[in-house]
Each structure stands twice: as structure tokens, then as C-alpha cells.
């Protein structure tokens, strides 16, 4: 059997075709056929909480993953025989950053900042404090002020900013410093026996940047916002990781490189053996998903 590959993909506007760009016909089905192979381990990495991840799987007919990194990296679940098993080791790992405090304990630190509006309680959790921001906002000044307050309180935190393009709304998450998508992916890699030679991450937005610019081989789908593309390039250049960043262009298997088509293009870029699987599979007529047993 070929070496196992860990495919970690963001959901919204990466695997899910819920942006303004068109999806290539058959791309999601081709993705499903690829990840049904025994050589592939699938992890969803999302800002969504568990219920919204389950909604996405159902509404978009996605393959059930082996792992889910949710809530922008603050939760990890193993999905086994349909059961979602909460990985408590991960939360224990990140809890030290906040010295026993939880996200609700941090709210008073920022209660006077008028540009911040708390997100719904369903989008908060023990180690994720989430706000909405009206656009345009001075993100740099706001993050500087918030970071100063966190430092004074001796709390190690990450401030992750992204934009919900559908609603033209800014999203700002306050997380323990270790509780990012990047550290969650690395934690999963280390504990499941993967390394940089057999892990791939796919993303499209601001909260994916720490992974996209890291040494983890990554792909930016072609529908990614141009600002995110620019930031990923700049950060990867600064960190010397440009060889681990691939920008989907379209053209692979006649597809446009958006969403799941871009993920497949990136996987083929890093692992040529998967290109052969996909090209062979692409030539077959598909009345149902291929059975790789």
C-alpha cells in the first residue's frame, strides 16, 4: 500500500462551494472518490462548531471525515463509526496559555471596545471568544490594543481575523496562543504519525494564514481572496516556506481550480501518485462513487 496521506481542509469557500465563484461540475464527487481510498486520512479544519460542521456534511453531501478540527482550532474530534469523540488531550494542551481562565472570563477585558460585538453564544466556547466587526475597521490598531491588554493580564493569546464575504462582516477570534488551526494540525500530525512529507492543508481565508504560511505543505484554492493570497505569499517569504505553498491555477483534469477542484490540484502537485489515481478515475463513467476495496 502507498504511504498514507493526511488531507486537512478548511470547509467554507474551500471544500464548500459557498462563495461567489463557480464550482467545477463533478469536482466534489471526484474529491469524495479520492478520500474514500484507504491511503487517505481526511480531516476537516473549520471555524464552524460541531453542529455547523454536521450541517455542512449533510447539506453538501460531503464524505464523513476521520477527524474534525473545529471552532478555529479550539476543538478536535475523532469521528469513528459515526460517533464524534472529543479529544480532551488537545484542550489540556492549550489551557495553560490562559492560566486556568476561560473565554467568558476574558470578556471584561474588551467590554469597552465599541467596534467589537459579541457573536452568538453558540459560536463561543471554553477557549474561543468571538466577535463581529463592522467593515471597514482599523484592524491593526484594534489588535494592538487588545494584545496590550492580554499581555498586561499575562495571557498568551492569538487574535485571528477573517472576513465573512457573504455578509461583508469582520470576524475576530481570541484564542489561546496554541489553539490555532496550525497548532491543531501539527498536534494531529504528531499524534497520528504524520509529518511534512505526507500532510496537506487546503484553505482560502484569513484564519487559514498561519497554516498556509507554515512548513505544512498547503494549497490556496483559486477562488481565494486576493488579499489572502498576497498575505500568504508575504508570510511564506518571510518564513522561508514558499516551497510549501501552492496556488491553484485551474486546468487540472479540465477543472477551474475553485473549491474542491483546487484541493485536488494541490494534492496532485505534492503527490504525483495521486495524480495517476485521479486521472485514471476521471476517465471512468460514474453512476455512483467508485468502490476502492
Report on this model:
This protein is α/β, with parallel strands linked by helices. 33% of the residues lie in helices and 20% in strands. It has 10 helices and 12 strands. The protein has helices at 27-35, 50-59, 88-95, 103-106, 139-152, 181-192, 209-212, 226-239, 260-270, 272-282, and strands at 5-9, 40-45, 67-70, 75-80, 83-86, 116-118, 129-133, 157-164, 169-176, 199-203, 218-220, 245-247. The strands form 2 sheets. The protein has an 8-stranded mixed beta sheet with strand order 5-4-3-2-1-10-11-12, sandwiched between helices. A 4-stranded antiparallel beta sheet has the order 6-7-9-8. α1 crosses α9 (260-270) and α9 (260-270) packs across α10 (272-282). The protein is globular, with a radius of gyration of 19 Å. It starts with a strand and ends in an 11-residue tail after the last helix. Residues 287-293 have low confidence and may be disordered.
Amino acid at each position: 500500500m502507498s504511504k498514507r496521506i493526511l488531507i486537512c481542509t478548511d470547509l467554507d469557500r474551500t471544500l464548500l462551494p459557498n462563495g461567489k465563484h463557480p464550482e467545477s461540475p463533478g469536482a466534489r464527487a471526484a474529491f469524495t472518490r479520492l478520500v474514500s481510498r484507504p491511503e487517505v486520512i481526511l480531516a476537516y479544519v473549520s471555524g464552524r462548531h460541531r453542529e455547523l460542521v454536521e450541517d455542512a456534511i449533510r447539506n453538501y453531501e460531503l464524505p464523513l471525515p476521520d477527524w474534525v478540527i473545529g471552532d478555529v482550532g479550539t476543538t478536535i474530534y475523532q469521528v469513528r463509526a459515526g460517533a464524534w469523540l472529543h479529544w480532551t488531550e488537545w484542550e489540556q494542551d492549550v489551557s495553560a496559555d490562559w492560566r486556568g481562565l476561560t473565554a467568558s472570563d476574558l470578556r471584561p477585558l474588551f467590554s469597552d471596545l465599541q467596534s467589537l460585538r459579541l457573536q452568538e453564544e453558540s459560536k463561543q466556547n471554553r477557549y474561543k471568544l468571538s466577535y463581529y466587526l463592522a467593515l471597514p475597521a482599523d484592524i491593526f490598531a484594534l489588535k494592538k490594543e487588545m494584545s496590550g491588554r492580554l499581555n498586561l493580564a499575562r495571557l498568551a493569546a492569538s487574535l485571528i481575523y477573517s472576513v465573512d464575504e457573504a455578509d461583508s462582516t469582520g470576524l475576530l477570534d481570541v484564542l489561546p496562543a496554541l489553539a490555532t488551526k496550525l497548532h491543531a494540525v501539527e498536534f494531529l500530525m504528531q499524534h497520528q504519525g504524520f509529518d511534512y512529507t505526507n500532510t496537506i492543508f487546503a484553505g482560502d481565508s484569513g484564519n487559514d494564514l498561519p497554516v498556509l504560511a507554515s512548513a505544512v505543505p498547503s494549497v490556496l484554492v483559486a477562488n481565494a481572496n486576493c488579499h489572502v493570497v498576497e498575505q500568504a505569499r508575504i508570510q511564506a517569504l518571510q518564513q522561508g516556506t514558499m516551497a510549501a505553498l501552492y496556488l491553484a491555477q485551474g486546468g487540472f483534469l479540465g477543472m477551474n481550480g475553485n473549491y474542491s477542484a483546487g484541493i485536488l490540484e494541490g494534492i496532485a502537485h505534492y503527490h504525483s501518485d495521486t495524480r495517476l489515481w485521479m486521472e485514471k478515475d476521471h476517465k471512468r463513467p460514474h453512476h455512483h462513487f467508485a468502490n476502492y476495496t
